[in-house]
Amino acid sequence: MRDDDILIGSLMEESWLTLEQVAAACMVEPAWLLRHLEEGLFPHAESIAGTWRFSGMTLIRARRMRQLERDFDAAPELAALVADLLEEMDELRARLRGGG
Amino acid sequence: MQFKDYYQTLGVARDATADEIKKAFRKLARKYHPDISKEPDAELRMQEVNEAYAVLSDVEKRAAYDQLGRGYQPGQDFRPPPDWDAGFEFSGRGFSPREAADFSEFFAELFGRGGAPAGARHARGGGRAQGEDHHAKLLLDLEDAFSGATRQISLRVPQLDAHGRVVLATRTLNVKIPVGVHQGQVIRLAGQGAPGTDGAAAGDLLLEVHFKPHPRFRPDGRDLHRILPVTPWEAALGGVVAVDLPQGSVKVRIPEGAQSGRQLRVRGKGIPGEPPGDLLLDLQVVLPAADTPQARQLYETMAHELAFDPRQPGRA
After folding, report:
1. How near does any CA of chain A get to the CA of B234, in Å?
2. Domain range holding B48?
């Protein structure tokens, strides 16, 4: 491997993800995301001076909610509830795996 | 290329109604849901189920597939006749082209032409449009966050071939992982997403960091948790113990009178960064077995000499 073949990544601070980036990464329409944000279904997203900013964790949540809505015709609130439960399960599973 | 029997994948008859297909899909979507399923190949199966449903839930695609698939057995070598899809128009809904990129070669051959390639964003009132950001998951060892690492990643990218058909190309990139990455963080590779149109800038490639499970450490942001086993005398009398880290080790002072369940915080010894995370140690007092006469003697001496009753009210 030559040194100039190696791409250097830059770390995005968590607040750097924009609405368009989250929408593109999760394959959802920005309007879908915006509607869900306005309904309070993304508790970890913040709006500062009218601009939404997102943590990397939002990506997983958006993807999960969209799949639940599409696969089961789930109401957005139900998809959000399932996403809440899955997030809690992730946390508990991580604790179980070790290290306290 | 092998013929795929989408009816068999969903477990429905060839004359199944749209409702029956939807019901069969939902049942399987629940069974193979990647967050819940205990099946070892759940993710792969879910992909097959999604692919079958993308075809059979779409009236036009299903009709074309039925016409084409007559007489084929699953697994049989398959080549679509030229212009087989004349007269069909695929609207491509439900699954985005980038999701369809994970579908089989069989699917791409049949329906690839119907979906727009995951290329440039639609231009708004002009020909120039910046390329779309692409996105992928990156699975790392916790140690990589301490030392940095160079990882080779392979991505399947849909591209248009000379006939205007969507084909899957494999792209391999060598990526330097910066020190200090943590779970859920995103690494941006500028200009490595989809190309722009008419000379506009390419999109970025966004890599979402996930750690493989570690036997001892549990990362939480930049903080690291681990259970620290200590001897009864280290806990009772206090002492200094060496604790291994993902990279190197650190000496930690156990305070006198420590108990199981107490948490010690070692500042700045978690994942490096500005500021670095902390190391959080959950103490666990481990008793030596009374399996030698000498060990039994020591326990018996304590039993006689110490007035200790952990069940006494008011004792934590």
Report:
1. 20
2. 6-114
